[in-house]
Amino acid sequence: MAYVVLARKYRPQAFEDVVAQDHVTRTLRHAVVNGRIGSGYLFCGPRGTGKTTVARILAKAVNCANGPTDKPCGVCSSCLEITSGSSLDVLEIDAASNTGVDDVRQLRENIRYLPTGGKKRIYIIDEVHRLSGSAFDALLKTLEEPPPHVIFVFATTEPLKVPDTILSRTQRFDFRRVSVEDLMAHLRKIATSEGLTIDDAALLLLARKADGSVRDSLSLLDQIAAYAGETIGEQDVVKSLGLVDRTFLMDYTAAVAAADRKQVLRLTRSLFENGIDAADFTAELLDHLRTLLIIRTDSDAVSTLSCGAEELAELQKQAQFFEVGDILRLMKILVDLNGDLKSGLDERLLLEVAGVKMAELESTVRLEDILARLNAGESVQLPQPASSKPDQMRGSDFFPPTPPGKAAAPTVAKTVVEPTGLAANLQYAGRNLNLPQVQAGWDSFLALLKQSNPMLASQLRMGEVRAVQDNQIQVMFYSSGEASRQLVLKPESQSIIVRALRDHFRALVTIRFDIDQTKDHPAQAVEKVGQNRIDPRKLVEQSPRLKFLVDKVDGEIIGIKKLPSQE
């Protein structure tokens, strides 16, 4: 027996089987039950949402041997003929192939004949917007006063091209795109029926790719099943359909945010080496930026996004890299690129130019924000050095005790450093930095600072950049980095660091130093003696000579390493 594709095998045969079009099926069922069946219907909506399918179900509901009924039996001769497409009383006409006025005149001649076996003759005209203007005119009188045994059902994906004279003579039903959640549920049910094992991540990719079309989703599932067999994973979907991996989109967006032109070009080269279509990548990146725009604009709409908790956390983090204006301008570049890709020019060249253009894009800054920042900075003074007793800042009076049953949060002591002399840096006031930009340029900044002050550069290297918000850079030191933190908190050190930061990043930045008591520095080597850890700070306190040496060089012990002879 010949294989039947899933889109045909699982085509709905009753109103209740139609996916996510309850507003249409409910109205039609009530019309059939109450005897209020119209003479003309217009079904509008995207492809694959059930327009022709519902027209066939309506025809069965009207002509069923038990009907009219909202639950056609599906086993009588009329139902079976409509299902197989051989019914003489249900005629499906493709308007794309029968566009002329002569075709409509022939139809007008045929509608005089009574049904052969059913109660009504149903004319289903697909893609009705393709009819010519004269064909529409020839149809008007018949549509307004059709014979009592005739029902017209028009289906179209472009209702705006249907003349108002036709719209006014029909009942219009708008079919909606099927949501990702409904598509996933439908695909999961069919996969179970077919004996396929498919994970949620793969279902999510399929549902997204289908773009609201049930037919497209089943065709894709057919294709994936042929590629992967009975067990389907996320990577099977990515490879077989040539999709853009979500991680790739994240990396590309991070490279754009960091203004890393080299990385953007490397990723573009990788895109073409893996055979991913440029138009598909542009569409995926546009959708990715749309998600960031929603997160950045309306935090309440986050729950409507179709993504897992882990992916959502990454998206929320990445959304903070851009202002709303930045995302809008990036999307404008991609929209222009989408049009340019249809021009026939070299796709790789167009993608590389657009990528570099996005990486070169300066951050959006409003004039009132610049003035507010400058006005606020005129009266800000450098803070006094922090207390020489760090424990006072990390004590129970500074942080409330952890509630019972909850894990202790990282203990953080905060100091915010604001620069002086903002008027001298007015040329930097219009640039906003984000975390990827600072992280990408941090090593080169430390190299620059090392030329003028090697000691400060080495102390800053003991910390890591954790966040950037409103041009304030947060540097986090680890549990053993209190000495380094105290050193960079000195007023003269702060002045040097902030001046170097502005010169390097060309932005009006501030810096803040925190300490995380719950983490050790990655380079810190700690040796265990029995079950006890050796604490370098206690070792310094117990050895006056070692303490003198550390104070003399203004240094810090970050770990203890066992000699080879002791191993």
UniProtKB/TrEMBL annotation:
Top-rank taxon, per record: Bacteria
Pfam (any one): DNA_pol3_gamma3
UniProt-listed InterPro entries: AAA+_ATPase, ClpA/B, DNA_pol3_clamp-load_cplx_C, DNA_pol_III_gamma-3, DNA_pol_III_sug/sutau_N, DNA_polIII_delta, DNA_Rep/Repair_Clamp_Loader, HLD_clamp_pol_III_gamma_tau
Catalytic reactions on record: DNA(n) + a 2'-deoxyribonucleoside 5'-triphosphate = DNA(n+1) + diphosphate
Keywords, sorted A to Z: ATP-binding, DNA replication, DNA-directed DNA polymerase, Metal-binding, Nucleotide-binding, Nucleotidyltransferase, Transferase, Zinc
Biased composition range(s): Polar residues: 381-390
Primary enzyme class: transferase
GO cellular component, one term: DNA polymerase III complex
All copies of domain AAA+ ATPase, residue ranges: 37-179
Keyword field contains Manganese: no
SUPFAM superfamilies: P-loop containing nucleoside triphosphate hydrolases, post-AAA+ oligomerization domain-like
CDD domains: AAA
Region (Disordered): 381-406
Key word Nucleotidyltransferase present: yes
EC code: 2.7.7.7
Gene Ontology terms: biological process: DNA-templated DNA replication
Family: Belongs to the DnaX/STICHEL family.
Assembly mode: DNA polymerase III contains a core (composed of alpha, epsilon and theta chains) that associates with a tau subunit. This core dimerizes to form the POLIII' complex. PolIII' associates with the gamma complex (composed of gamma, delta, delta', psi and chi chains) and with the beta chain to form the complete DNA polymerase III complex.
Function noted in UniProt: DNA polymerase III is a complex, multichain enzyme responsible for most of the replicative synthesis in bacteria. This DNA polymerase also exhibits 3' to 5' exonuclease activity.
Protein name (database record): DNA polymerase III subunit gamma/tau
Organism: candidate division GN15 bacterium
